[in-house]
Structure formats: C-alpha cells, structure tokens
Amino acid sequence: MRVDLFDFELPAERIALRPARPRDAAKMLVVEGEAPFADRIVRELPQILRPGDVLVFNDTRVIPAQLEGRRGEAKIGATLHKRIDLRRWQAFIRNAKRLKPGDIIEFAQGVTALAEERLADGSFTLAFGGDEPVEVLLERAGTMPLPPYIAGKRPTDEADRSDYQTMFAREDGAVAAPTAALHFTEGVIEALDAAGIVRETLTLHVGAGTFLPLKVDDTTDHAMHAEWGRIDAKTAARLNAARKAGGRIIAVGTTSLRLLESATGDDGVIRPFEGDTAIFITPGYRFKAIDGLMTNFHLPKSTLFMLVSALMGLERMQAVYSHAIAEDYRFYSYGDSSLLIP
C-alpha cells in the first residue's frame, strides 16, 4: 500500500510534552465497531470493559539508553536499539559520518564503547568497555531516550525517569516505553480487579526502530526492526482459556498486540514464544489473538497508524483522528488514549 495513504495533518500544539497528572486523568476515545465515538477518561475503563475481559500489559522496563559522547573532536550521539549480548548493542548514531569501525566513543562518567561494525541500515554495533554490567554504565552515563518529537522541544529531566516508565516495568531492556500503559495507576488496577477484569503480562523489549518514520513510498518496501519478546507457557494457557470462556483479549499497547499476534497460529491458539519478532501489520492483516486494543495516538505515516488502520479500517481511523484533533486530544507518547474494539 502507498505510505501517503496514512498521512494526516497534526497541529504541533497537539503533541504532548508532559503526561496527564494524575496519569489516569488522561482522555480516552472509545471506538467500538461503527457505534458513535465516546469521549471518556482512562479511570472509567473498569466501567467500559466486561467481567472476564483480559488486559495484556508489557512489563518491559525502559533503560537510560540515550548517550552523548565524543570520538576525538567529533560529537557523537548514540541511541541503543537492540541488545546483542551482555556487552554489545545495536545503536542508532547521530553524526555517524564522523564514526568508523574501530573507533572508540568516550561517553560521560568514564564510559566507553568500541564502534565494531556499521550495519546495512546505517546503525552501528557498539561494544562497551570495562567489567561493570552495561546496565550500571547506562545508569551512570545515559538519559531516558525520549522520542525526538519531545526531546526536540525540551531537555530530558529527572521527572522523565519516572514519567516515561509504566507501573508494570520489571524487565530491563526497552529503549522506548510501552506508552499505552503509562496511564494506569494503583486506583485503576484496584477498580479493574473489583470489576472482574483480568490482567496478564508479557515482555517485549521495545526498540527505537518501532517509532522511526517510513522512508519508502510503499509499505512492501519497509523492513521492520526486530524486537525480542517472551510469552511463557502459563500465560499463553490462561489467555487461551479466557478466550474460550468468552472473555475478550485487549492488548494494552501495540507492543503487546504485536507479540500476541506473533505467538498465535492460524488456528487462533496463543503459544509460548521467546525470540525476535519483526511483524509488520498493515490493512488486510487478519488478527488472530486480540479482540481490542488500548493505545495512544500515533504519528502520520507511521507503522503504528498502519496497525490501528488494519484493526479498525483506514477510513474509520481517519475519522477517529479527525475527531481527536478537533476535540483537543493530546498525541503521542505522553498523550491521551484510545480504546479500539473492532
């Protein structure tokens, strides 16, 4: 499909630079089938879902994966993208023309990395020096990797260390937050439990490639970056049982959705999964695992807007986004939410 079919005009003032406070006060646009849109707020979610429905959260934890350093006199920026092993990461590099394989980058606080290899997409493999775990080095020298549409408008600060982390964050490895879950609070969770709505978790370490703009004219020419994920056998079994009993599987975020779909066969059975997924969902895709999606509002011409268009239909999502813009919904990572039920 042509990428320009997924374009739309978004006023700059609609981009959220800070999250709603409290988190569950964010607006939530409920879109169910062809029913009229409903303007709600996140804390009303327990009254909207049905007993027996299952919300599936991503428990990945964002690491401070943004690094600033030097190679000689040249300033070099690195955004870690995907872990290779204990000491090596793939990284997107700013000022990459000043970096070549074999160079040493000197970051803050004595942290160094060897630029081992330039990859086909222009990123580099970085090997971190020293004996300390890379996680320790990143806590010392790194900052939270806010998306460029936020970081380009204000500096990252201490508040982002908690704001850009969900309450479910447990497994270190993401370089971008599973932002749909940023809206949840202990109060919402207690209300969900009281309403008989089930919660499950999986792990998908979100990579920065998920949010990159497409640089091709047709979706068939776009190669997704792979991300590592895991669904254990007990979780898969519970999800299958809940669906068999009539519960709806609602993915909280496109990251949860993509891993669930990667783990599900054509028979609709969710299976244990551990490994990389590069699934790219565009209109025409037949969903096998999920019955709905809670997600924020995404960038024009992004793979994520293509995904929600596959779920609800392109014309329907164009109408949804027009309504959201007209009604002053806040967009992107720190923005408001939507609940999409085909």
From TrEMBL:
Its main location: cytoplasm. Keywords: Cytoplasm, Glycosyltransferase, Isomerase, Queuosine biosynthesis, S-adenosyl-L-methionine, Transferase. GO terms for molecular function: S-adenosylmethionine:tRNA ribosyltransferase-isomerase activity. Pathway: tRNA modification; tRNA-queuosine biosynthesis. Its EC number is 2.4.99.17. It is an enzyme of class 2 (transferase). It catalyses: 7-aminomethyl-7-carbaguanosine(34) in tRNA + S-adenosyl-L-methionine = epoxyqueuosine(34) in tRNA + adenine + L-methionine + 2 H(+). It is found in: Cytoplasm. Gene3D superfamilies: QueA-like. GO terms for biological process: tRNA queuosine(34) biosynthetic process. GO terms for cellular component: cytoplasm. Transfers and isomerizes the ribose moiety from AdoMet to the 7-aminomethyl group of 7-deazaguanine (preQ1-tRNA) to give epoxyqueuosine (oQ-tRNA). Belongs to the QueA family. Monomer. This is S-adenosylmethionine:tRNA ribosyltransferase-isomerase. The lineage of its organism: Bacteria, Pseudomonadati, Pseudomonadota, Alphaproteobacteria, Sphingomonadales.
